Amino acid sequence: HVQLVESGGGSVQSGGSLRLSCAASGYSVSQGYMAWFRQAPGKEREGVASIDSDGETTYADSVKGRFTITRDHGKNSLNLQMNNLKPEDTATYYCAATPRVGHPTIAIRQYDYWGQGTQVTVS
């Protein structure tokens, strides 16, 4: 039974930083690829960043240079460091994973497991 649990969301002023974490159980973050997605009210869920088992990463253009995705093998968790946050980053952020072999992708259809989300609000 795979479980992904996000934490670290909150409210921050524009220009501030937050660090999201996704604790995985029943799934090793060393396999396949994982990603962060977000969904703002009234908008479709969109990919933010992804990382594969080799550490290769990919980012949405809107967050390049501001967000960094990493994995912590010791804690079996996925992280997202978000710097220079903007009001348009406000959304519920979701962690996703798949054991498939391949390059990192922020295509929603590629992911098999999802967390419940954590809210990020930037004012």
Give a brief outline of the structure.
0% of the residues lie in helices and 49% in strands. The chain has 123 residues and is mainly beta.
Write structural notes for this entry.
- The termini are far apart.
- It is built from no helices and eleven strands.
- The mean pLDDT is 96.
- Strands 2, 4, 5, 6, 9, 10 and 11 form a seven-stranded mixed β-sheet that branches. Strands 1-3-8-7 form a four-stranded antiparallel β-sheet, with no helix packed on it.
- By secondary structure, it is mainly beta.
Largest sheet: 7 strands, mixed
Terminal CA distance reads 37 Å
Number of helices: 0
Using only C-alpha atoms, the radius of gyration works out to 13 Å
**How many strands?**
11
Overall residue-averaged pLDDT value: 96
Structural class by SSE content: mainly beta
What's the helix-strand series?
Answer: EEEEEEEEEEE
What is the global morphology?
globular
Percent helix, as a range, is under 10%
Strand content: over 45%
Low-confidence stretches: none
